[in-house]
Amino acid sequence: MSGKTVTVLTILVAALAGFFYYDTYWLEPAREKRESVKGRLWEVEPKDVESLTIKRKGETVRLRRTDSGWELLEPVKTRADRGAVDGIVTTVVTARVDREVSAAPGKLDEFGLAPPETEVTLEVKGRAPLALLVGAKSPTGAWLFAKEASKPAVIALSEIVARDLGKPVTELRDRTVLAFERKSVGQVDIQLPGPLGGESITLESVEAGKWRLTKPRPLPADPDVVADFLEKLDGARAKDFVEDAPKSLAPYGLDRPTTVTLWVGKDKERASRILLFGREDKDKKGVYVMRSGEPGVMLVGEELWTAVPKTVGVLRDKVVLAYQYDKVSRVELAGPRGSLTLEREGPGWKITVPEALKADTGAVNGVLWKIRDLRASGFLAEEAAAIPRLLPKPDVTVKVWEEGAKEPKVLLLAASRETRGGQPAAVAAVEGRGPVVLVDGKVLDDLARGPDDLRDKSLLPAFEMGDVKRARLVSGGAALVVERKGESDWQVVEPKRGGTKERRVADLLLSLKALRWKSIASAKGEDAARFGLDKPELEITLMKADGGEIAGLLVGKADGPLTYLKLKSSATVYSVDSSLIGDLRKAPVEIPG
What's the pTM value of the predicted model, to 2 decimals? Predict the structure, then answer.
C-alpha cells in the first residue's frame, strides 16, 4: 500500500471519527432538546424562571427564586415550599398546546378570558417576561381555554395547569418550622420566661454526639435528650398558619415566650436560628410558635413542645457510671450474697473468687449492661463529700477495672426510703466523686449476684452439632443408635436399620446443648438411688466420628418441677427444670420414622 493511500485512509478515518463525535456530543443532544420542547407553549426551561406572579380573583401570589429555593413575597413575605413552587413552574413552562381553538376570537368572555380566571407572569433569565391568561374549562373538563397575553389566539391546555395555578397559598408556604442542619449546630440557648427574666440554659457541643451544659452551671448533658430535641425540631412542620400579622401576641402566649436559639456554623459563618414558643393549645394538640424576625404565628404539634428541655434536671447527663464495655478486664461484686471476682478470658469470662469457675458470659454481660444502662431518676447532692452521709453503708458495691487503668471505678448502692413513681428507689454514687443520685431500687437485686448466679451452668461440655457422628439412647433397657450419613441425614443402625425423623434428631441435640442446671443436688453423688440414678430412666451418649465420646448423660427421676441428672464422667448430681427434659424422654420413641 502506497504512502498516498495510507494518508487518504487516515484522513477518512479522522473525518468519520470527527463526525461521530460531532453527532454524539452536539447534534444528538440538540435533536433531543428540540423533541423535548416540541409542542410546548414556550421554549423555556424551569431552571431559568426567576420569578412567578399568579393573579386570581381577589388574590395575588408573588414568588421569587433565591439561592436556597423560593421566597413568597405576596400576600405574605415568608419562605416558600421549594417542591411545591418548582412543581407549578414546571407545569406551566412545560405545558403543551393541545390545539388552537380560535385564531382570532370575537369574544374572549366565551372562553372565560374576559376577565381571565387566572393570569400568570414569568420572569425568565435573558428574555422578556412571559404572560398567560387562563380561562374556563372545556365542556368535558379535560382541557382549559388559555391565551398568551401578547397573542390573540385561544388555545387548549391540560386542566392540570389550572389545578396547579389554583393551589391555595398555604400549600405554597414552607411548613418547615426552623431550617438548619443538625450536624452544624454548635450551641443551643434556651431562655425560659419568668418575672426576672426566667432561667437561661446553654448547651455546647463537645464532639459529635456529646454535649455539655455551660449555663447555669457546667455539667455533662444527656446526649439522648439533646439529640431527641434537635431531631424533633429539625423534623417539625407547621400544622397551621394561624395569623400572619396579629395585632397582639398575648392570645398565643408569645408576648412572654420561651426562646430557643440554635447557633450554627463557625467563626465568620456562625449564625443563629431562633424560634419562639408560646402557649399550648390542648384542644388543637399543639403549641403556638414564631420564627424570630417574622410576624406570622404558626401551630406545631405538641410533641415538639414536649421535647423542649425546660430544666437542668432534664438536660443533665443521668448516666451513673460510664465505662467502655470492650475495655473492661475485671469486675468485683460485693453484696448480700457475698463477694465475687470476674476476669475476662478471651471473648468470655471466668470467676476467680471465691473459687475458680467458668462464668456464664451472657449472665455477666447482663450485669455489665445493667450498670451501663443505670440512670439517675433524681439528684440528692452534687459533691462527693455527701457520700458518707447519704451512703454510709452500701448494700452493693461494684468495682469495674478497665484496661490500662490503675484504679477501678467503684459504684456504691444502698436502699432508700424514697420512691419514684410508686416504686422503691436506691441511692447510688461513684466513689470519690458526685453526684449522689436516686435510681430504680430493682438494681439492688440485679447487681447482688453470687457465684451460683453467674457461673456457667451448662450441663454438657460445649460441642458443635456437626461434630456428633453417632448418638446412643437407652430407655427401659432398649437401645436406639442413630448415625449421621450426611450433613443432616440420620439413620437408625440399632436395633435394626431404618430411617429417622431427622428434625427430631436435631431437636435432641439442640435440647442437650441448651440444658442448664438449677442447683447442685449432691456434689459427690452420694445416695444415687434417692435421685433415681442407680437405674436411670434414660441414658444418652454422643460420639465423634473416631468413636470418642463427646458426652454422656444419665436422666434420673422427676421430683415435682425438678428432674435429677448427672454426667457419666462426673459424680455430681444436678437438678434441672423438668420442662427441659420432655423432648429428651420422648426422643427414643419419636426419632425412628
Answer: 0.74
